[in-house]
Amino acid sequence: MVNAARRPGDGPRQAQAIFTATLELLAERGYDGLTMEGVAARSGVHKTTIYRWWTDKDALLGAALLNSALLELPAPDTGTLRGDLLALTGHVLRLLTTEPSASVITAALTAAGRPVLSRLAHEFFADRLAGELVIFDRARQRGEIAADIDPKLVVDLLAGAMWTRVLLRQEQPPPGFAAQAVDLVLTALGWSG
Amino acid sequence: MVNAARRPGDGPRQAQAIFTATLELLAERGYDGLTMEGVAARSGVHKTTIYRWWTDKDALLGAALLNSALLELPAPDTGTLRGDLLALTGHVLRLLTTEPSASVITAALTAAGRPVLSRLAHEFFADRLAGELVIFDRARQRGEIAADIDPKLVVDLLAGAMWTRVLLRQEQPPPGFAAQAVDLVLTALGWSG
């Protein structure tokens, strides 16, 4: 686990290089093939530096999943809820369908049976949701949606449709798929732009 | 692969016992630990009988995933689209959250990086969708929804929300979660009962 005195975003100067190496190795070799030694070799950062920040590979993997630029989901700010949801849903779809993120996500799913990965998945999606809430706060302030709308349900419907089509059905969504999903949900929210 | 002269539902008299043993072993030992010998021992069906029907473990696993009673998703027929979608979404949620189906699904996901499992996932969800289409056909005939509604998008949104909340967020959905999702989507479809 990360030392409690440090904030989650903290890390050595070379943190992004370490995170990239960690996720690349996870994608290539799976959870069992991921080692601190491998990350040191791939990132060019000395093993003692890595161990100074993360006590074991689970702590490192957690930090990499949460903080790697590779899986970032920045909250868009386009000026409308529709624009923001299109940007967000399109971004999720790109992460699922383009490399290297697609392989990293498949590898993380492949390890999903392990308790440590369950805990990390919970943290990862809670963290991403927290970042997405601002979209709905701004939409409420602009009077675009009612106060009682449940952002988590909206995000689960939209992100869930992307995951289902790509990872469960193993299909390439047709052009406009994300927009169709967003417009259906916006209709339900009584959104009129 | 299943012999082309046989229909997918065909199989020896003991088919369900073989399918149950196959999925139990997948859940307990993972894809690598699943063997024809293990299935024979667990099901009590002689190995030569199993090999007569399925040439290798991938063919057997495909048949088990598609045809086991454990993962059946029978199309409900409650008389209304809302009733049918509540039943369907509730059933998906139960499969994801109760044993033994929850462990089987996690184990199948855990093997998701393998091409054979990708192909099987595609077939599995295409087969389940084909079964669900009748719900929407009947709703159209009853005049509950417009002719141009995309049932696949509706199913992906609803099933996706269940998968996202349970398997990605690793959370127990609150009571009424499935109904909330169904009612949001029905509002979008202009459904009035």
TrEMBL record, chains A, B:
Known DNA-binding region: 35-54
PANTHER family assigned: HTH-TYPE TRANSCRIPTIONAL REGULATOR RUTR, TETR-FAMILY TRANSCRIPTIONAL REGULATOR
InterPro entries found in the cross-reference section: Homeodomain-like_sf, HTH-type_TetR-like_transc_reg, HTH_TetR, Tet_transcr_reg_TetR-rel_C_sf, TetR_C
Organism: Crossiella cryophila
A GO molecular-function descriptor: DNA-binding transcription factor activity
Residue ranges of every copy of the HTH tetR-type domain listed in the record: 12-72
Keywords annotated in UniProt: DNA-binding, Transcription, Transcription regulation
UniProt-listed Gene3D superfamilies: Homeodomain-like, Tetracycline Repressor, domain 2
Name this polypeptide is given: AcrR family transcriptional regulator
